[in-house]
Specification:
Neutral Protease, domain 2; Serine Threonine Protein Phosphatase 5, Tetratricopeptide repeat; seven-stranded mixed beta sheet; about 20% strand; globular
Length: about 625
């Protein structure tokens, strides 16, 4: 689909478009507080990107040809940049007048280029900064195999502007082609059509024909190989990791089929995964056609692959129907968590998915309590107010899990059959478009609540979206399997030896719940007994280990401190780092340990992680 009418939105809020709407339709412009772009005057519809990756200097030298769609009186195009060294801006070979705006710590600098309504393209020549926030340059020792350096990008939320001059707003979509030069022997991959073999000359070409927002621009360069997992899926990883990754993602084709059976065809061609080095700051990133994944999900038993289901679900929620601004982030993540749980239920049963839902509820309730205690109740609203802040502040359990429980509430009110029909229609009718919270409410009322005469009032919807915390009638799931875990924990607390606990058939989710349920009053000797029996300090399951390390800090179980330091130094996933560092800084001794470990670990972390931990330890 072309981007010509993407900003035309037929609901409560409408985008200004070059193509005029009918007289009956109202036009408004949605202002993205995290972008300098003025798309109603001139917007980017296609990017031709040519780049050379320089590992020695840790920069990318590039040329960006931006194809524009202009209003009839366009005089300028506004782009987002951060730390880019711009050497020239041209159009048809002629130099263009341009200027850079004042620097903002979150937004970077605007790049304003003077144009006329007839300007079809502009060409920006530039070099990235060594400190580009999206780019993670790794030395060989920071990779799994140590065979050479590695580069990956992380553009979400507004970091694409640090490696491409672009309109860096989730509400602006464009297609792209790219040519990338890398050192011989390395493979380059992007969020596009990708190679499956190393190019002999280090030259790679890419094409993304479906329009995407800038936060889904992605590049990875490293000594990786590919293995097929099926007709339209496969995995890339360093050679020593490849077989393990291929096993871990063995159900990927089944996941794609289950997703399509729920909510319609997968529209992105292939679905491949690359397992990145440990410094990747997230569990996964849903870059179209190529999900970036953390190696921390390689547990050896496929127990943590709900993350893959989550990133796959983004192929519909987020990538296909995208939040218009980061204030509407819950529309991406709430739908994705809901969809993820439905995929897992389809493959592994309701009992399994309810364990995931119960763990999500634990995380959500803890985060809501913490936010309210810190006088941040507004950040527990689904619709956020992030103007003047880093949009990364919105990456919390609220968008993910409160969003999920709101959608689950709607499903339970209207019935699964009607709800599934609505969601499928929602993805189909709004494919390759953007969505605001207000427009979603309008769409929900028109296409489900009013249509089916469902008794859900506006007051209740507004309570979920615009009020803090959870509504009183929010249904928090209870897992029968977790009740059995709680029973065993109670038996241990009351004196039953660890070796007599009935835990033989537990999944990793049950073990995670067990570790989280350790009471504050538990003695070090009891922790040691559990550790000796169940091997928590030595476990290869990162979710269970991270929870155990938090408990170890809380209880001053020093036997786990060596593993804690190793884990913090060699793991860059922020989901794990924040709770562990957060527990450490609660005491003077813990703060001292945190700063000592962080000094060693920080060079291995991506900006997304250091930005959080720096603030925590300042």
């Amino acid at each position: 689909m072309k981007t010509k009418a993407i900003f035309c939105f037929y609901a409560l809020i409408f985008f200004s478009c070059t193509e005029k709407t009918t007289n009956e339709e109202q036009e408004m412009t949605i202002q993205d507080p995290h972008s300098y772009a003025i798309p109603e005057e001139s917007k980017v519809t296609h990017l031709d990107w040519a780049a050379s990756v320089n590992f020695q200097n840790k920069v990318i030298n590039a040329t960006a040809v931006l194809h524009l769609e202009n209003s009839k009186d366009a005089a300028k195009v506004m782009l987002d940049t951060k730390g880019l060294n711009i050497t020239s801006v041209k159009s048809n070979g002629e130099d263009m007048d341009y200027s850079l705006g004042d620097y903002d710590k979150h937004l970077g600098r605007s790049l304003e280029v003077a144009i006329t309504p007839d300007t079809k393209t502009i060409t920006v020549n530039y070099t990235t900064s060594k400190a580009a926030e999206a780019l993670q340059w790794l030395d060989p020792v920071q990779t799994a195999d140590g065979n050479g350096p590695f580069l990956f990008t992380q553009s979400q939320a507004i970091l694409a502007r640090s490696w491409v001059p672009i309109q860096d707003s989730p509400g602006i979509r464009f297609t792209y082609n790219a040519t990338v030069k890398v050192p011989q022997g390395m493979m380059a991959l992007m969020s596009a059509e990708n190679p499956q073999k190393v190019s002999a000359d280090g030259q790679y070409s890419f094409k993304m024909e479906e329009p995407i927002p800038a936060y889904l621009l992605a590049l990875s360069v490293g000594y990786v190989e590919f293995v097929s997992l099926g007709e339209r899926s496969g995995v890339y990883a360093e050679p020593s990791v490849l077989d393990k990754a291929a096993y871990e993602f063995g159900d990927l084709e089944k996941m794609i089929t289950a997703a399509e059976d729920l909510y319609g065809p997968y529209k992105w061609g292939r679905y491949d995964i690359i397992v990145l080095p440990p410094s990747f700051p997230f569990g996964g990133m849903e870059n179209p056609r190529l999900t970036f994944a953390t190696p921390t999900i390689l547990a050896g038993d496929r127990s943590l692959t709900s993350l893959v289901a989550h990133e796959l679900a983004h192929s519909w929620s987020g990538n296909l129907v995208t939040n218009a601004t980061w204030n509407d982030f819950w529309l991406n993540e709430g739908f994705t968590v809901y969809f993820e749980h439905r995929i897992m239920e389809s493959l592994y049963g309701r009992d399994y998915s309810e364990m995931l839902a119960s763990l999500a509820a634990q995380d959500l309730q803890d985060e809501i309590a913490e936010m309210i205690a810190d006088d941040n109740a507004k950040d527990t609203h689904l619709k956020l107010e992030l103007e003047g802040r880093n949009p990364d502040d919105g990456v919390t359990s609220i968008a993910y899990d409160k969003g999920y429980f709101f959608l689950r509430y709607l499903e339970e009110k209207v019935g699964r059959e009607k709800w599934d029909a609505f969601v499928k229609q929602y993805f189909t009718e709004n494919a390759f478009k953007v969505m605001t919270t207000e427009a979603f409410i309008e769409y929900l009322e028109t296409n489900l609540i009013d249509k089916e005469r469902i008794n859900i009032g506006t007051v209740k919807i507004n309570e979920w979206i615009y009020q803090p915390g959870l509504p009183d009638d929010a249904v928090i799931p209870e897992s029968d399997r977790f009740e059995k875990v709680d029973k065993e924990m109670n038996r241990f607390v009351q004196g039953t030896p660890a070796e007599e606990l009935e835990s033989e058939e537990w999944s990793s989710h049950e073990w995670l719940h067990f570790v989280r349920a350790i009471p504050d009053t538990m003695k070090i000797a009891e922790l040691k007994e559990l550790d000796d029996q169940f091997g928590f300090t030595k476990t290869g399951n990162s979710e269970v280990l991270a929870a155990w390390l938090v408990q170890s800090v809380k209880h001053e179980y020093e036997s786990a401190y060596g593993r804690l330091e190793t884990f913090l130094i060699n793991t860059g996933r922020r989901k794990f780092l924040s709770p562990i560092y957060g527990e450490l800084v609660k005491t003077e001794a813990g703060t001292k340990m945190a700063r000592e470990v962080y000094e060693k670990a920080r060079p291995n972390y991506h900006f997304v992680a250091t930005n959080t931990i720096d603030e925590m330890l300042k």
